[in-house]
Amino acid sequence: MNPVSTNINTPTESASPEEKVRAKAKAAAKLRRSLSCLVPIQPHGSKRPFFCIHPNAGVVFPYYELAFNLANVQPFYGLQSVGIAGKSQPLTSIEEMATHYIKAVRTVQPFGPYALGGWSLGGLIAFEMAQQLQRVGESVVLVSLDGLANQSNKFINSWEVIKFISTSVVRNIWPYVFDYLNLTSFEKEQCDKPKGHALRDRTELPISNRIAYIAQGIAQRAETAKFRQEAIRRLFPVLWKNTTAFINYKPQVYPGRMILLRSYGTSRKYRRYPNLGWSNLVQQGIEIHEIPGHHLNILRQPHVKAVAATLQACLDDN
Fold first, then answer.
1. Per-residue pLDDT tens for 37-88?
2. What is the pLDDT of residues 84-136, one digit of tens each?
3. E strand residue ranges, 96-254
4. What's the rounded Cα separation, in Å, for the pair 42 and 6?
5. What angle do CA 89, 40, 30 make, to 5 degrees?
6. With a threshold of 0.90, does the pTM exceed it?
7. Do 27 and 8 form a contact (C-beta atoms < 8 A)?
8. Can you count the helices (H) and strands (E) in the chain?
9. Sequence-distant (≥ 6) Cβ neighbours of residue 247 within 8 angstroms
10. CA distance 130 to 179
């Protein structure tokens, strides 16, 4: 049924702490390095799959904790930007991204009804995907995780981006940056360890072996630094293309409805736009659910548990 999913082996309770760490690191590596834009974060379960589109940075690792706080039978797929993995060039428009991601979604679920959503920019891309799917007769459950609608005016969109970066991103994005850098380093270090490797007291080694051990450690740290640089190098072009795609996108009126999970912090910031700009773009109305936190911490503890509970209820009811 799922020709593109990555089999994630969950370590058993009897596994040693080292085996559990290694299994989790290898699973994370497979997810992040997937050459497909479709990342099977939690592909198992009997419920309708939820496909969650990447935010502006193009990565889907912020969704890991959300996915694993949902019901055990709720399949959860992330869609990462083309260009995050491999040598493919990033896509340049929201419409192009939506078309590409729909093809990926259909490798898992050929026919609707579909459940689509996304955090931040991901909500806007999911909105365009829903537009394209409805035009060919498919039904969609559309969920925006605190995502703002954009305007048809490029100047207004550009100003919103500048304002968002200067007031919110600069102060609150660093936990995600550190997570991304630590994830890339951690998974490489763990995946490069030979099976059965255990930490040893280096002072117990013979001098010749000790020197070799230290030299190996230095080489590994250098390789990890290079790995981080490559990850960052891929990230910036994707971030730029996604930002310009947001600025240039001209949304059309969607004939369906939307479920909007709106954070307390965002609702206070945009008091004039209680629907976060979607009211004139969604024909059949918006179902709003308040969630704790602000835009950049709703997918982190402790707020992610409440977000997951609200999201699961919405998926089950629709």
1. 999 999 999 999 999 999 998 888 889 999 989 999 999 999 999 988 767 8
2. 876 788 999 999 999 999 999 999 999 999 999 999 999 999 999 999 999 99
3. 114-119, 140-145
4. 9
5. 70
6. no
7. yes
8. 10, 7
9. 150, 154, 157, 158, 161
10. 31
